[in-house]
């Protein structure tokens, strides 16, 4: 049977000719194959760059955060240094006692032991002051006395370890103590300690990894300050850190 000419033929999908043409174009444009390699590579590179930028921002934020100083730990360290110096005085008194003349041996040895005990008791009572006690113990090793005495007691130097996890806090405390108006920390090395290769900066003598050395505070650069740790006779720093500027 022939279809009447006045009726528009319909597509098997039941759509008008215009919509059927659009449907066929969309079907032909559909892509069923795998994603091209260059597109995959570009997506991977974009994701990697975004991850790197996020990691860099996180690292920068962590580095610029000023550490919190533990005042209790600082007091305990300074009190320990004071007690160590007092113990050295007691040992020196006991060692010198037998070598004194017999007529004065009893009285001098008793006086030395009494003075040492008194000094140790005073240090124990003043240990709560922390920095004040440490400053009083280090007066005898100031720059003026270092020039006149042949050797300075190494027990009076601050004790530092280059692999200590709290080294940042210890250096912040040392910097604050050296900048105090009544600071008397040793800054000039002995004749047998060569620190000529440490460069410019404010220097404070210290025990570094069990050897006599120095902490050199460089000039602050903006919001940060570089600090280098040296031992006598070695121009290479055993540790370099960056602290917030004072």
TrEMBL record:
Superkingdom of source: Bacteria
Transmembrane domains' residue ranges: 81-100
Region (Disordered): 104-163
Key word Transmembrane helix present: yes
Protein's UniProt keywords contain Transmembrane helix: yes
Keywords associated with the record: Membrane, Transmembrane, Transmembrane helix
Biased composition (Low complexity): 104-119
The protein's name: Uncharacterized protein
Organism: Nocardioides glacieisoli
């Amino acid at each position: 049977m022939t279809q009447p000419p006045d009726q528009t033929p319909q597509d098997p999908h039941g759509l008008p000719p215009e919509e059927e043409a659009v449907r066929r174009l969309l079907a032909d444009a559909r892509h069923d194959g795998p994603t091209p390699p260059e597109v995959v590579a570009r997506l991977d590179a974009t994701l990697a760059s975004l991850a790197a930028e996020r990691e860099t921002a996180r690292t920068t934020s962590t580095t610029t955060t000023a550490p919190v100083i533990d005042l209790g730990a600082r007091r305990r360290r300074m009190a320990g240094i004071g007690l160590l110096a007092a113990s050295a005085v007691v040992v020196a008194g006991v060692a010198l006692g037998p070598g004194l003349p017999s007529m004065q041996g009893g009285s001098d040895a008793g006086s030395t032991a009494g003075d040492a005990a008194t000094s140790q008791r005073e240090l124990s009572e003043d240990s709560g002051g922390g920095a004040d006690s440490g400053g009083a113990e280090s007066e005898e090793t100031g720059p003026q006395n270092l020039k006149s005495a042949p050797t300075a007691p190494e027990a009076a130097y601050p004790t530092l370890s280059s692999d200590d996890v709290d080294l940042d806090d210890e250096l912040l405390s040392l910097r604050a103590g050296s900048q105090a108006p009544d600071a008397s920390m040793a800054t000039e090395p002995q004749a047998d300690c060569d620190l000529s290769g440490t460069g410019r900066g404010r220097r404070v003598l210290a025990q570094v990894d069990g050897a006599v050395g120095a902490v050199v505070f460089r000039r602050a650069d903006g919001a940060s300050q570089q600090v280098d740790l040296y031992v006598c006779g070695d121009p290479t720093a055993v540790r370099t850190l960056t602290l917030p500027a004072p």
